[in-house]
Automatic annotation (TrEMBL):
Family stated for the protein in its record: Belongs to the NDUFAF7 family.
Entry's Gene Ontology cellular component terms: mitochondrion
Catalysed reactions, as listed in the record: L-arginyl-[protein] + 2 S-adenosyl-L-methionine = N(omega),N(omega)'-dimethyl-L-arginyl-[protein] + 2 S-adenosyl-L-homocysteine + 2 H(+)
Top-rank taxon, per record: Eukaryota
Its EC number(s): 2.1.1.320
InterPro entries per record: NDUFAF7 (IPR003788), NDUFAF7_sf (IPR038375), SAM-dependent_MTases_sf (IPR029063)
Protein name: Protein arginine methyltransferase NDUFAF7
Organism: Lithohypha guttulata
Amino acid sequence: MDSPAINQIFRQLFAPARGCLRRHAQAAQNGFQQNLSHTRRGYATRRRTDYMGDGQSNWQQRLDHFPRDVSKQIREYPRLTAKELARRSQRPTRVKMFTRDFIDDSLYNPNYGYFPRNATIFNLAEPFDFNSIEDGAKFQKLVDQSYIEFEDDLDAIQQDDLRQLWHTPTELFRPYYGEAVARWLVANYKASLYPYHDLVIYEIGAGNGTLMCNILDHIRETDMDVYHRTKFRIIEISQSLAEMQNTSLRHSRYFTDHLEHIQIINKSIFDWDTHVPEPSFFLALEVIDNFAHDTLRYDPYTEQPLQGSVLIDEEGRFYEYYEPNLDDLVSRFLRLRRAASRHQPPRTPISRPFYPPWLRKVRHSLPFAPNLTVPEYLPTRLLQFFDILTTHFPHHRLLISDFTKLATPIPGLNAPIAQTRYKRENVMVTTPYIHQGYFDIFFPTDFELMEDIYRAVTGKLTRVCSHADFLGSWADIESTRLKSGENVLLGGDMGGWYANVGVMITA
């Protein structure tokens, strides 16, 4: 965390002109170290004084360097939601919010959020000719070189040391990845809906719009009867990405034909309020990892869960704290998990088999031991997404793909990666409570738990498989095979990428 490169990043992020931290020279010079001391997780030292006689918690998390007591601010500051903050053009101070609202605001606030501000997705001028590439190592070099050339072209227009750039399988394996999804869509459509219904497709997290174009191109080239009945609708929260998707569409050789089949709706899926009675297919590919999560920590003795919040003081510093009163969304998620999870008891920081109660109590009785367990990150926003599908898209079929595991320095169960990019290098930090809008925050997905919750909410049957299994069934494998026999489109033992990605499909 203390490398010169990271210090440079945070000196830029927390300079006085940003209006976030102290407005004097010392804060500008030491912004990274100062902010870090207020965002690391720290702990009180003993348990016995943590509870008042009425059973309520007066526990106040102690940060590493024992900053000032903020109990008064916790009582007095208003609690805001991400939706309320969306009307603000400046990052908030003197407020508190649940973890999910802080993350949602950091990523999606229309004025300073990460995605509205940083909508740069790597794309290739021309697709790779996989059959002519020697092996996986050569493919990696070609990807690296393509990244350099892509960013050189951007820098020629405008230099940006803080440019956020990422890639997706849709872009790397274009058009074959999109064609695989198209084959799955057409096969399932013909098996149960054709010719009585149109092929209606919704996509969220559509990025550059490449997947949409590849799907429509393939359907037009292979099945005109289905193409004439295809409707593709993108639900896009970012105005800049919506514009980019329109631009991508113009690059398709079937641009004029596609116009009759496409609608780009610039709004959040969480603001959706229109009933869609017809059968539809819903695509969410590498998007739920950026859905906001709530945090819980547990009392190691009573096993009581406490819900996490973050307080932002008058100088823009962050204080993480936990309270025993759970809000309705978290309470509902826990009830659903207890009822639906195939693992009983569900996996939590206090139920893991290698951490029995007696060992947990011994550990937390030691001097200076933490008075709560490590955090657990709950996918509560994902639950709300399933509610929207059930309410407004009752006849949907869902295709989700996302990361099953991530290597992160942030402690906790289901902990996210929080990272930014500086001078073309990725930089990870050890907390999700960081300067809003400059960091991507993304989570692994527990596919077993997601499947259990989805089935409980929607009543639909599902199938979970690996990224490689799905693409092995639907992709043009020969066109993505390298000279060495490796297939970079497939994960696992085939020498491919995205081996840590899973897929869930509505049956």
